[in-house]
Amino acid sequence: MFDLYQLSEDHIAVREAVRELCDAKVAPNAAAADENGEFPQASYDALRSSDFHAPHIPAEFGGAGADALATAIVIEEVARACASSSLIPAVNKLGTMPLLLSGDQALKERYLTPVARGEAMFSYCLSEPEAGSDAGSMTTRADRDGDHWILNGVKRWITNAGVSEYYTVFAVTTPGIGPKGISAFVIEKSDPGVSFGAPERKLGIKGSPTREVYFDNVRVPLDRIIGEPGTGFATAMKTLDHTRVTIAAQAVGIAAGALDAALAYAQERRQFGKPIADFQGMQFLLADMGMKLTAARELTYAAAARSERGDADLTYFGAAAKCFASDAAMEITTDAVQVLGGYGYTKDFPAERMMRDAKITQIYEGTNQVQRIVMARQLLKGVI
Ligand code: CAA
């Protein structure tokens, strides 16, 4: 298949606008968010002021109506400045995608509008302590009780837990039949019986809280189910097809920030009487970093174009982009630390933070081993 994507003037303008905003108002918060492990409220405020906090929400719900490629560009540029902050638009897309794909109109209007306005964020609750890669083995239950569902269970690794007002929660409504017994619900932070664990102490993305979410006899009105009972697992997987593209974009952005830092340092730092960028050994390293970044970005945008069109090969491309870009980001950020030498190993420069932040992109929204399972299944089905 040939036509991948082409950046329009609008896409280029979006990139310039986000970059300008992030250089001025997001990058300056990145080191402190990492050091203090605090949610970067100033970044959220800046992103909200320019409608970059949840750009994918359609105009009919008051959103900016960005297409999947523009949304990827926003997330990439925010991640270039601060990976933790990029989880604001990324997780808003992850949390709301089940509603966009499968929710009814009333539920969409009720819950997407506040997110578009920047009054609420939306998280996604799939994983559990004993159900990570094997998402279909979840045990959180939703039992029907008259005109309510009663939710009980624990979700783990929930990004932006506690700061989000809304949560898409996947739960078993018909036990014993596997993925076909799973349904999706919108849960509010203020629903009685919802509570949160302590923030996880992590290697990176320290400015984005990751916590357990507990559901203790949470009574959920019937109209808060997303789609028909039993369709939740398929909705969860379809969501990830789209949002693995956004994690790829995040990885591309982290890698781009690291390459920027490496290029600047290599031209400033002098050894043996000249800038280290003049040494061929350094040039080969920088060239490899650029090559990997370019390949990752092209694959990510090709996947974003498929996400926008809803192509049949999106499942493959989403997994491939996420897997390739996150592996590239890990290599590029590690090489950036190497270019900066001893300085790269310190917190006086951003490379070590970027290296720590890159690691999670190989793990969340499905480990890269799971991505390979997904890709292989698509290849064997002849989809590609
Ligand atoms: N689109 C539509 N339907 C899909 C689908 C897709 N992409 N993938 C699977 N399904 C459907 C299947 O068609 C199947 O239905 P049928 O029986 O009717 O065909 C059903 O769902 C079950 O599918 P599988 O048999 O493929 O399921 P499986 O148990 O073998 O699991 C898996 C497959 C790929 C390993 C899946 O469990 C998976 O993706 N695991 C990783 C989970 C993950 O990514 N978790 C991250 C959570 S988000 C996060 O990281 C937190 C955060 O906040 C950032």
UniProtKB/TrEMBL annotation:
Keywords, alphabetical: FAD, Flavoprotein, Oxidoreductase
GO molecular function, one term: acyl-CoA dehydrogenase activity
One Pfam family cited in the UniProt record for this chain: Acyl-CoA_dh_N
UniProt domain Acyl-CoA dehydrogenase/oxidase N-terminal: residue ranges: 8-119
Residue span(s) of domain Acyl-CoA oxidase/dehydrogenase middle: 124-218
Span of domain Acyl-CoA dehydrogenase/oxidase C-terminal: 230-380
Database matches in InterPro entries: Acyl-CoA_DH_CS, Acyl-CoA_Oxase/DH_mid-dom, Acyl-CoA_Oxase/DH_mid-dom_sf, AcylCo_DH-like_C, AcylCo_DH/oxidase_C, AcylCoA_DH/ox_N, AcylCoA_DH/ox_N_sf, AcylCoA_DH/oxidase_NM_dom_sf
Span of the signal peptide: none
Cofactor(s) it depends on: FAD
Family, similarity comment: Belongs to the acyl-CoA dehydrogenase family.
PANTHER family per the UniProt record, alphabetical: ACYL-COA DEHYDROGENASE, ISOVALERYL-COA DEHYDROGENASE, MITOCHONDRIAL-RELATED
Name used for this protein in its record: Alkylation response protein AidB-like acyl-CoA dehydrogenase
